[in-house]
Amino acid sequence: MDLDSYPRRRYTKDPTPLHALPRFSEALGGPTVHIKRDDLLGLAGGGNKTRKLEFVVAEALAEGCDTLITCGATQSNHCRLTASAAALEGVRCRLALEQRAPNIYDAEASGNNLLYRALDVERFEICDDGSDMDEVMHRMAAEARDEGRRPHVIPLGAGSPRGVLGYIECLREILAQARVQDVRFDAIVTAAGGTGGTQAGLLVGLLDSGDATPVIGINSGADRATEERRVFDLARRTIEFSHLSATLDVQQVECLDAYVGDGYAQPTAAMIEAVQRLARTEGVLLDPVYSGKAMAGLIDLVRQGRFRRDRHVLFLHTGGVPALYHYAAPFLSKETT
């Protein structure tokens, strides 16, 4: 697959670091855990959506767009990064934010909400849980056109086949770095949630490379069947979009839902333990919504004995650290320290 044939912006100069976590691995007493630091990608605060936006924003600019419109939860990393890309490209940004719990939106909240303001988001549409966000965004686009703007709607999480190209590129980075470091990964573990684009891209990238490394997604909110179907469908659409002559078997998609807790963006004791353990052994921060729950899943899989001590497991850090500042209470409570 020739990724250079697709229009692309470059928001990160070099491949993100990939390295072992020796103190963390020793504390777990299991396999050697390595980390791919996509929290260090370009744009404000970093995170996995940067890779997707490189392709999606390039398409928007090629169409003459002057206003980016997208959607997400009230503390959406994707919305933060879209606003950052808009600022960098000199276009405007409007956001539709979904309250995934009643009255959760706080215009004065910290975390990503604060960064929306710093990045000068032009307009917000606050929606109730379960709203048809595609309909909301297209209405916002119609309003922008009525104002003489040239809007471009970016789907939730940049979760389109074009956006998924970013994680095909990431998989190629991982394989190249693994060769240089002379390591063979027995599994890749990452957060699964939102649109499934990250895991879908890794799976399609593996198909394209002829590599059979398992990819284990740890769900942030959905049940297993829903998430696996979402990832599989997006991977299949990406294969068609990129004209790749390969077939993904649904059995290759694994998304575990045992670490969701009470629901999306709801803290769990295991997530807090995972965030603290990595921070206190390696000085690396995770986020409370996605990567924290994903690491909680990895820790539990190690404790269950899924990976032998002589194995190597890669954890893909998808970013989202700015959201930590919105979750101070559970981390500071006496019950969780």
Based on CA atoms alone, the radius of gyration comes out at 19 Å
CATH fold description of the largest domain: Rossmann fold
**CATH top level label of the largest domain:** Alpha Beta
Strand content: 15-25%
Shape: globular
Average of pLDDT: 96
Distance between the termini: 48 Å
Q: Assembly state here?
A: single chain
CATH architectural name of the largest domain: 3-Layer(aba) Sandwich
What strand line-up does the widest sheet have? 1-2-10-7-8-9
How many strands? 10
- Characterize the biggest β-sheet: 6 strands, mixed
Give helix and strand order, one letter per element, not per position: EHEHEHEHEHEHEHEHEHHEH
Content-based structural category:
alpha/beta
Total count of helical runs of at least 4 residues: 11
Low-confidence stretches: none
Share of helix among residues? Answer: 40-55%
Count of domains = 2
Structural description of this entry:
This protein has 11 helices and 10 strands. With 337 residues, the protein is of the alpha/beta class. The chain folds into 2 domains: 3-47 and 160-332, Rossmann fold, CATH 3.40.50.1100; 49-158, Rossmann fold. Helix 6 packs across helix 7 (197-209), helix 6 crosses helix 8 (224-241) and helix 7 packs across helix 8. The longest helix is centred in the middle third of the chain and has 21 residues, at 161-181. The termini are far apart.
